[in-house]
What does this fold into?
Amino acid sequence: MRGFERSLVAGGDLPYHQLVVRSLRSSAADLNLVLDPLRLAASAPQAWWLLGRLRPAALFTTGGYLALPLVAAARARGIPSLLWEGNVTPGRATAALARLATRVAVSFPPTLAAFPGRSFVSGTPIRSFAAVDRVAARASFGIAPDERLLLVFGGSQAVARITSALDAALEQLLGDWRVLHLAGATGMPAAEALRGRLPAAVRDRYRPMAFLTDRMADALVASDLVLGRAGSSTCAEVAAVGVSSILVPYPHAAGHQQANAAWLADQGAAVMVRDDELSGDRLLAEATGLRDDARRARMAGAALAIARPDAAQRLAAELLAMAGRRPLPSLAGTAG
It folds into this structure.
């Protein structure tokens, strides 16, 4: 089977259909440089036939190069489509798709300027935190009421910079913080070795774990400070929880995370540290400044003010209205 998406639904109840177009994994001068345009061209009639057979009432897409044939076919067949853009700065493929889509939903208010008259702010769909009790969540991680918890994670991108800075600052950090470090499976040996090098007096204040899966909501609610990347989901979740954060944008991927983190920082909802500026000393300085409960409370309040925890409901309402050929909530001024 090809593709992560297919592996997610394999063997389940959801039908899976795959176009011959492939994601642009690199710009190397190889055979795919010739084959990719041919695959894209071949996907156009494939998408037309597929939509004709399935007859969907509406189409939802998160954009990207792979969505071009389907959104174009949907427009040609009169099928309404909703495009969602999760970053402040849209990519080139999303900009092209926006000209074909019926409506564009965006996560951040500044992105509206990229799609004038065609977009609304939905926010980023995230897990629900409504049922998570902070006292119970902190107890589940062994955090006392008078302790501060620093949660460290890096999303799906490489986190060597974050891990290196944490390594250099950890012993001093543990004087003020308990640290819960989501190191990933490949990072666990190094994290365990780091824990073993710590003085016995503070060793139990550092807890490395590979993943949390269904306990991630508990960890976010339990935390007093988050150190992580600045993907759309991370930005949306720290805002929804109302937790202060140090965001270190992933420096590649067209700089999307840089714009995300900068916007939160401009709102007073986070501290942004560039990837090439993060060191043990810088991490220690930022974390030390955020020991101040009043400062963290102000940052948490600013984060909550920009949160859109109902993003999934907004997108669903828009899609259902499209499918039913009813007036769109985004045009009625009830979303965004």
